[in-house]
């Protein structure tokens, strides 16, 4: 099956490459804003927009007037224009708001370039990009497939990234004849029917604490600057701290993403049938004091990774109904105890006397229910 995969890596451009990246971002923004201006004017006068092809022809003319546009990747400029045309199309279809001018002060600065005539490639630990040549890459995993496009991005922390979209042919994975149930918990990130627990909150909690501390420091810096009558844009201590906080946020995000990728791949490799609760509804029922936004985001990201990987590799995901009382049933004898409050972490079945860990028992029930619904289908 042909699928599209996205990869994101840190890149380490040289000083010259950094300058060229900054120029390309600047030129892409210039092209976007200039044609957006024309587009807006035309729209006001005629009620209609321009077309990509007419603008594209004009861009060629524009390069004669502004010769510095020729210094940068021409495909990036075309992409910027295409992006504008697409935004306007969506706006006319009422799918989004009218496109807005891009600002130098936007949090994330980026440009996108497309593959043509093998202008992009991964060469060892480097990526070949148009005009830039080879850029050092922190390649945390192998890139498989044909590169379709690449987006070069500079984050507020001053770090550079590349996102690569590839098209690749994936083969179904070998069947393992194994099924598993997963309970997405509160104390543990995930609890599995085979008895093991995945706890990711040790590192996120530690990072969160640090993040909170640095964020408080940031507000103090903002106040100091205000008291001294310095504009935040010129307050060096504030700006330095702002970059630090952005870097921390990024690290938390990357670590979490990495963790979820590895975990989901592992599960898909080892099991044919994966039974899981239907999250959309679980979110509504959960006690909000306990639920942290961070786990909400991770859970839905985790489930979506499981879902697309299952599709790619020929595995099955079974979602269990919200009404299924996974934590009320004894997985050993089937006796239904009734609702248990969240403080009860373990209990003994009054009928078969089996002692249960609350979450492992729930995941075993989820597995049994998943297999049952699958057999009915
Ligand atoms: Zn029992």
UniProtKB/TrEMBL annotation:
The keyword Signal does not apply. InterPro entries: Cas12f1-like_TNB, RNA-guided_DNA_endo/Transpos, RNA-guided_endonuclease_TnpB, Transposase, Transposase_put_HTH. This is Transposase. Residues 208-258 form a coiled coil. GO terms for molecular function: DNA binding; metal ion binding. It comes from Alkalihalobacillus alcalophilus ATCC 27647 = CGMCC 1.3604. Residues 1-48 form the Transposase putative helix-turn-helix domain. Residues 164-287 form the Probable transposase IS891/IS1136/IS1341 domain. In the N-terminal section; belongs to the transposase 2 family.
